[in-house]
Known about the structure:
The chain is 30% helix and 26% strand. By secondary structure, the chain is α/β, with parallel strands linked by helices. The strands form two sheets. Strands 7, 8, 9, 10, 11, 12 and 13 form a seven-stranded parallel β-sheet that branches. A six-stranded mixed β-sheet has the order 1-4-5-6-3-2. It starts with a strand and ends in a 7-residue tail after the last helix.
Amino acid sequence: MNRFFADRKNIIEDQQRIFIDDPEDVKHIGKVLRLAEKDIIEICDGENGIYIGEISTISKGKVEVKIQEKKISDTEPPIEVTLFQGIPKGAKMEMIIQKCTELGIHSIIPLNTSRTVVQLKDRKDEIKKIERWQKIAQEAAKQSKRGVIPNVGQPIEFSDLEETLAAFDFAIIPYEKETRIGLKSLLKNKIGQRKIAVIIGPEGGFEEAEIEKAKEFGSVPITLGKRILRTETAGFVVLSTLMYELGDLGGI
């Protein structure tokens, strides 16, 4: 069944109606999928609520759906992982957002570090980037049947982590010079802990001073093995392992 997201303001439960007015979704429903009146679709409110509905009308700028059933999404993992991603070059950030959304990420925060090469020009450029990244998260959430659209936050500085990490049960930061603590051994003592922060450096990795600061902030440096992973790979590996060990990847 095809799934779409709708703004809460467009879900009118007392009238059993939902309006989809995103231009791309309207076009996709009518022109690409060639859905018609009386076809059944799923609509997600982005907050874990799922509505099964019958298309009642399709117009140029809007699709109206009659609600038949409401349920809670069962596709969200039991853990909330936030990825603090050192901003990489090119389209790597887009791929990271897409794949992490598929794997069940809760939120993604772009991170400026000492070795971050990409610099957003100004506030206008930053807003444009965030909107683009959020749209990618939404499309990936739709494709992977997520009940929640991961939030792509505003970029933060490395120093901002000190205050931000206080909200998490634990935080990990993969570092190529760490040889003692591995992710496997660390997670043995983390069963039942729900809010997790993962901090990934940009292409050039972290400076040693940043690792020391991260430790002061409460983060645990870990090794991911003897091979050096790219920035666009490291987050996937950590998230996949967390979902397998503490989440629902592979079933219950």
